[in-house]
Design brief:
Elements (H helix, E strand, L loop, with lengths): L4 E5 L5 E6 L2 E3 L10 E15 L2 E3 L3 E13 L2 E3 L3 E4 L10 E2 L11 E2 L4 E4 L5 E5 L46 E10 L35 E10 L21 H4 L13 E3 L6 E8 L3 E8 L5 E9 L2 E9 L6 E9 L2 E10 L1
Parallel strand pairs: 1-4, 2-4, 3-5, 4-6, 5-7, 6-8, 7-9, 9-10
Antiparallel strand pairs: 11-12, 13-14, 15-16, 16-19, 17-18, 17-20, 20-21
Length: 346
């Protein structure tokens, strides 16, 4: 470990070295001319840098000497994402700096992580609604140099791989089916002919029109299907002994901060023309803010509300003044982001 690098390969070794499934952040020392996420600086070995997530570093991945192959890496908010000369097999790397990502199939843009709150704290697991790193990696389970198939949480990577250290599960999808059954109006007409005796000169014809009608009735059936259905069993593994003195108010209130069952949040109608309603289920009264961003990361609206505890709490956004397109909605509960939704405006 170097003074200014998250991982420093600089030990005069020979052979092959492997760096994979790491999250490295904040190696950005202002008074240093060097520093960053990963440094490769030894000509005596080959290094393989696979599926790392690097955030807010002076340089994301820097090669000075030695052969380095980089695949499926993400660099964000770095002064320079990739610096140096890398092996020809390098591929599927992401940077938020234009023309910075290297190798085959380079990708440029912002990667959305799992959570961001007002203090700027991040959970660097991938957001299920991300569209840049999600499903755009190369499958390395049969890589000729370093085959593997798990992410940093030991979850198996399947299907299209994600770029970076985390393999995120697909976001739940909701399908609303509306069935309308109408009983139509029934109209009948009958003709009655009568004969009068004795027979007159002209045989009269008497016509009777009978109209029977029934008022139509409508039966509407709504079916909501959410897929996939997920059951979460929390597991807590103690790793340390903690001795608390005084009044442990933060420990007592830890569970109280969990205000929203995020899997039950819903935006409707979606797509929308004039208004979008965000349906929330709160365990207690809370200050709620819904932040709306366009796909360039620009905030276009902020809606605040103070809501009571209970199911079916609603925050409404008037979307009639924004352009048609796709928007990201961050639901902030008591200063913490609890949910991220996609909203389509027609």
């Amino acid at each position: 470990m170097g003074d200014y690098y998250g991982v420093e390969l600089n030990s005069n070794l020979s052979g092959d070295l492997y760096v994979w499934n790491n999250i490295i952040y904040d190696f950005n020392v202002t008074n240093s001319s060097s520093g960053g996420g990963i440094l490769i600086n030894d000509s005596g070995y080959n290094s393989y840098i696979y599926n790392n997530t690097i955030f807010n570093c002076k340089v994301g991945i820097e090669q000075i000497s030695g052969t380095a192959v980089v695949k499926n890496n993400v660099t964000q908010l770095c002064q320079d994402g990739y610096a140096g000369t890398f092996g020809a097999a390098s591929t599927n790397n992401v940077s938020d700096i234009v023309s910075d990502a290297l190798g085959l199939n380079p990708l440029t843009g912002r990667v959305y992580f799992a959570e961001e709150n007002d203090a700027g704290n991040l959970d660097f697991h991938l957001n299920p609604f991300d569209t840049l790193a999600k499903d755009n990696g190369i499958d390395l389970s049969s890589d000729p140099n370093w085959p593997f198939s798990e992410d940093l949480d030991k979850q198996t990577r399947t299907g299209s791989w994600d770029i970076g250290a985390d393999e995120v599960e697909d976001a739940p999808t909701a399908t609303l089916t509306c069935t309308v059954t109408l009983t139509p109006t029934i109209t009948t007409t009958s003709t009655l002919t009568s004969t009068i005796s004795p027979t007159p000169t002209t045989t009269p014809t008497i016509t009777h029109t009978l109209i029977a009608s029934a008022t139509p009735t409508a039966t509407i059936t709504l079916t909501l299907t959410i897929s996939p259905t997920t059951t979460i069993t929390p597991t807590i593994t103690p790793t340390a002994t903690i001795t608390v003195t005084g009044t442990p108010t933060k420990i007592q209130n830890a569970l109280a901060d969990v205000d929203l069952n995020w899997k039950n949040a819903l935006a409707y109608p979606n797509p929308a023309n004039d208004e979008v309603h965000f349906l929330l289920h709160l365990k207690k009264a809370a200050d709620v803010r819904v932040e709306l961003y366009n796909m360039n990361g620009e905030r276009v609206a902020s809606v605040k509300a103070s809501l009571q505890a209970g199911n079916g709490q609603v925050v409404t956004w008037n979307c009639s003044e924004v352009a048609a397109g796709l928007y990201i909605a961050k639901i902030v509960i008591n200063g913490k982001v609890r949910e991220v939704l996609k909203v389509c405006v027609k």
